[in-house]
């Protein structure tokens, strides 16, 4: 069978690459979406210095896990006050990048509820207007800079929407590890585990192919080796660079496969139990590895390139890795009973992402 891999994002990587913003935005009006701590860290001033008069609009009150409750007013203000910007630059973690992805999809009326109504249909649509997106991640995790997806949360109604259109692929991704040096320990771990989850989920996935596998294996090896070291040495530039590249590779892998069961489980754990995304989608990885193993020979061979041939050893290795990062690996650790966990897993198998899992047919 022929494999196809498609990723249209013009990707720049390396220390100092943020300054490429200057040549990428020549002659344009741009808006900036940036994480709240950035001003205190001097990053807003630095970007203002790079862009000068081109920077006409700034949103810096981005909250973790963009929620409809806050997005509505941000979106409507943006389309009222910054409709003439050609490009939106997102500098931040997945929350800033996903916020920017929601902003660039313009509705006819400029109202956010019109966008939500379109998302609620679950079908692709042609937006009335849109803007180009440049994404510069400041966490090594989500891979959102090289994927078309944005997760929009509605915690009030215990729901989430997935935005995915041709225009939500970033035009350019700038991965500058220097931006990640200020990420605190907890976020470094949870985002790094999100990246590990992306890589593994792309392997135990019905959409996997040799190209995505190649990105995934390389990302997993790097994360297993680097993340525990980085946790103990947060200002180590080389480790930050390696994790930035690993998260990018994991992002490339799942940009073509989407995620699978661990992510499907995570949505319930985030909505019901408030677990941060990176922990919610990684604490079940040893369990899901066990469910994947033996489902498909080719998938087993790929997993075994990383973990060796014995499942019990592989699961123990993954559990020990998570425990060393202070992440607990059982549902009961999060107050979920065994019966409830079974229900969550069964429900997650039937979700859109759960159906990508190689074991979902057998379940
Ligand atoms: N679109 C995708 O493909 C995709 C994939 C995975 C996750 N997500 C989404 O991404 C969001 C989570 O993103 P995240 O895990 O990167 O976390 P985040 O963006 O919420 O950031 C976590 C915290 O770290 C802070 N922060 C970010 N960069 C920093 C820096 N350089 N220095 C200091 N503090 C910094 C943020 O302000 C925030 O308080 C969720 O909404 C999730 O649904 C999207």
UniProtKB/TrEMBL annotation:
UniProt entry tagged with the keyword Transcription: no
Alphabetized UniProt keyword annotations: Oxidoreductase
Span of domain Alcohol dehydrogenase iron-type/glycerol dehydrogenase GldA: 8-177
Pfam families: ADH_Fe_C, Fe-ADH
Keyword Magnesium (UniProt): no
PROSITE patterns documented for this protein: ADH_IRON_1
Residues covered by the Fe-containing alcohol dehydrogenase-like C-terminal domain: 188-352
SUPFAM superfamilies registered for this protein in UniProt: Dehydroquinate synthase-like (SSF56796)
Protein name listed in UniProt: Iron-containing alcohol dehydrogenase
Native source species: Pseudomonas arcuscaelestis
């Amino acid at each position: 069978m022929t494999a196809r891999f498609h990723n249209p994002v013009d990707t720049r990587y390396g220390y100092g690459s943020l300054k490429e913003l200057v040549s990428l935005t020549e002659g344009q009006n741009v808006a900036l979406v940036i994480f709240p701590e950035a001003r205190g860290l001097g990053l807003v001033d630095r970007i203002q210095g790079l862009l000068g008069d081109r920077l006409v609009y700034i949103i810096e009150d981005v909250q973790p896990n963009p929620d409809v409750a806050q997005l509505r007013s941000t979106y409507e203000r943006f389309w009222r006050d910054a409709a003439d910007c050609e490009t939106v630059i997102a500098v931040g973690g997945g929350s800033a990048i996903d916020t920017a992805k929601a902003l660039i999809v313009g509705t006819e009326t400029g109202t956010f509820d019109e966008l939500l109504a379109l998302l609620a249909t679950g079908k692709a649509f042609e937006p009335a207007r849109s803007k180009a997106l440049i994404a510069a991640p400041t966490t090594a995790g989500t891979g959102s800079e090289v994927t078309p997806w944005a997760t929009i949360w509605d915690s009030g109604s215990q729901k989430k929407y997935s935005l995915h259109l041709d225009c939500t692929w970033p035009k350019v991704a700038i991965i500058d590890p220097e931006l990640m040096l200020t990420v605190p320990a907890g976020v470094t771990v949870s985002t790094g585990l999100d990246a590990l989850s992306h890589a593994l989920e792309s392997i135990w996935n019905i959409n996997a192919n040799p190209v995505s596998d190649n990105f995934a294996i390389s990302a997993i090896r790097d994360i297993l080796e680097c993340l525990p070291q980085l946790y103990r040495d947060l200002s180590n530039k080389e480790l930050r660079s390696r994790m930035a590249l690993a998260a990018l590779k994991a992002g490339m892998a799942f940009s073509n496969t989407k995620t699978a069961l661990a992510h499907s489980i995570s949505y319930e754990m985030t909505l019901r139990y408030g677990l941060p995304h990176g922990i919610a989608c990684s604490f079940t990885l040893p369990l899901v590895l066990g469910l994947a193993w033996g489902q498909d020979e080719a998938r087993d061979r790929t997993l075994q390139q990383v973990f060796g041939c014995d499942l019990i050893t592989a699961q123990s290795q993954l559990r020990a890795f998570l425990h060393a990062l202070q992440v607990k690996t059982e549902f009961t650790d999060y107050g979920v009973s065994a019966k409830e966990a079974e229900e969550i897993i069964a429900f997650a198998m039937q979700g859109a992402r759960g159906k990508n899992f190689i074991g979902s047919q057998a379940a």
